[in-house]
Amino acid sequence: MTVLATVAGSKSQDGSISEMEELPVPQNIKISNITCDSFKICWDMEARSKERITHYFIDLNKKENKNSNKFKHKDVPTKLVAKAVPLPMTVRGHWFLSPRTEYTVAVQTASKQTDGDYAVSEWSEIIEFCTADYSTVHLNQLLEKAEVIAGRMLRFSVFYRNQNKEYFDHAREAQGNRMLPSVKDNSGSHGSPISGKLEGIFFSCNTEFNTGKPPQDSPYGRHRFEVQADSLFNPDTNLYFGDFYCMYTAYHYVILVLAPKGSRGDEFCKQRLPALDITDNRFLTCKQDGEGGGLVFHHAQDVILEVIYTEPVDLASGTVAEISGHQLMSLSTVNAKKDPSCKTCNISVGR
């Protein structure tokens, strides 16, 4: 049974919630079926006065607030009241639960009195739990939103990655002339299942509208590795949608994952991310040229694509050169926080 929790706030005449020793205190609390914005809760209770219980009071706090006083007026928005229903019950609601967040929960049993006040038990023990990542259902909702603004497709021919000179020197000297995957940072949606888990190498492919070539400016460094698109993206590669977000600006970012079929990254993504048809999607396509038989590549015009390639890349497969433009640090997305108020790129679950 699903229970939509609402804010509790009934007080006795002296401003406090009355207590009755007869009401049983919840024992052995168990949290299960945790999603990014819901969880199931159940507990054991002594039989005494069980029939008098009309409501459950739930004290739900982010973990750092677990020592806050129960039912202080200023804390009321985190305190929930639900009608007494058979357990386990589901607590859900994007207005108070966020993904990948540690919470504490404690419970009281309560009996509503004829004057509207509540008699309550003592608080149970405090239990800790952490909400989950976005599921593929949530990611498909993000995907649909991203498709709306992707814009028309522009042709491109290379993937590129900007870094400082030291990065490429280290790749040559200490990594066998290879760029190696690293764990994705926490940029983008808070519930993204790839943040802090998926290993890969970030590439760009967006082109300037007037030249059809990569821009000469970059926030990530003055040295650029360029590789022909078919080296990373071809019929032996699977493509996945990873995220859609903005950073309090007019620009929107789409994260895509390129994973060679059967690779470790591919297996990771199959379980967590929506797969895209490489020949027919709104963001990044790879098709056979009807005339010459080669591969033709297109990217979406109206979003900035961040492409994660899940395997090592040999520097010998491309070229490294210094760009002539500026290093625009303000455009960096490293650990960038998503704007939770943007209606374009948020969905109706915890941020």
The helix-and-strand class reads mainly beta
Number of folding domains? 2
Q: What are the segments in which pLDDT stays under 50 over at least 5 consecutive residues? A: 1-20, 68-77
Q: Taking all residues together, what is the mean pLDDT?
A: 84
Please provide the ordered H/E string of secondary-structure elements. EEEEEEEEEEEHEEHEEEEHEEHEEEEEE
Calculate the terminal CA-CA distance, rounded to whole Å.
Answer: 25 Å
Number of contiguous helices: 4
Number of strands: 25
Shape: elongated
CA-based gyration radius: 26 Å
Question: Percentage of helical residues?
Answer: under 10%
**Approximate strand percentage:** 35-45%
Largest sheet: 7 strands, mixed
Protein name: Fibronectin type-III domain-containing protein
Family: Belongs to the PHYHIP family.
Organism: Salarias fasciatus (Jewelled blenny)
Function: May play a role in the development of the central system.
Keyword list:
351 residues; mainly beta; Immunoglobulin-like; 2 domains; 7-stranded mixed beta sheet; 6-stranded mixed beta sheet; 4 helices; Ig-like_fold; FN3_dom; PHYIP/PHIPL_C; Fibronectin type-III domain-containing protein
